[in-house]
Every structure is written in C-alpha cells, then in structure tokens.
Design goal:
- The chain is built from six helices and three strands, in the order E-E-E-H-H-H-H-H-H.
- The protein has 174 residues and is mostly helical.
- Strands 1-2-3 form a three-stranded antiparallel β-sheet.
- It is elongated, with a radius of gyration of 30 Å.
Length: 174
Amino acid sequence: RGFLKCKLCDQNMTGSASRSRNGARHFYYHCNNCRKTRHKAELVNKALRGLLNKLKIKTEVQTLYKAIIKVVYENELKDKQLDANNAKIELKKLRTKSEKLNDLFLDGNIQLEDYNDMKTKLRSDISELEGLLSSKTFKEDDFQEHLNKGLGVLKNLDNIYSNCDLNGKHKLLG
C-alpha cells in the first residue's frame, strides 16, 4: 500500500480482499480515486519480488563495489584526519594567543574592556575547535560492519523482502 500508483489517474492504489461465490478470499490492489484500475495482489507481489531479484548484487560486483567504497572511505578518513591535525595546530596557536593576552593584561599593556572582548573571542574560538576535535569519529570496525550489512541486504534483497513484516517491507521500499 502507498507504493503503487494508478496508471490512469496517478493516485496511490490500496489493497483489499474480496470473497468469491465459494467463500475464498482474493486480494487486489485497486484505485479508490478513478475506480478503473485493479490488479491481483498475487501477480503484483510476484512481479515486485522478480524486480527485487533482478536488483540483487552479484558476488563479483559486490567484491568490486566493496573495494571502491573502501577506497572512498579511506580518502574521506584521510581528509578528516588532516582537518583534525589542522584544528589541533590552530588550537595550539589560539591557546598561545590567550596566554600572551593574559601577559599583556597583567603587565598593564591592555585595558580591561579590550582584554575582555579579546578573551571572549578567543574562548569562543577555542571552544569551537575543541568541540570539533571531540566529536564522535567513525571507527574502522563500524565502517566494515555497516558495509557488510548493506552489501548483505543488496545481495539478498528479494529474500529479505519476502520474509519481512508489513512495516519492514515499507522501510525496505522507502
């Protein structure tokens, strides 16, 4: 429900059941808007499973895809490490400035108002960089686990869909 569109009016189709003369239940997807489109649920579901089966990632493609994603991840990680190193250098410079500012104030070379303004700015900049450096980093183990799970889903998409409850199917289809 909510994923099929009526080809005549482009509105969402819904699922329902009806009983035949002999009492058997038959399930359909139909359009509540134009009421002209109706498909057997069994055929639609079979076609969807067939489509999901075609989307399955092959083992050789999975290996290549995994290698490509790993290279991209490692490049991103290097960039983040470089940013962190630059932030550490900048943080050290700001702390040095803060110490020099304190010395200037204590030696009477700077007025209280100017000192307070500069100190507030330095504290803000230092706090921002410390927050940046302390933010959670993505660990290699987490990356591998997420990558393997994601590729496992792509490899078994049709089976996962078939074994999901309705909520899981909705999440899988987006």
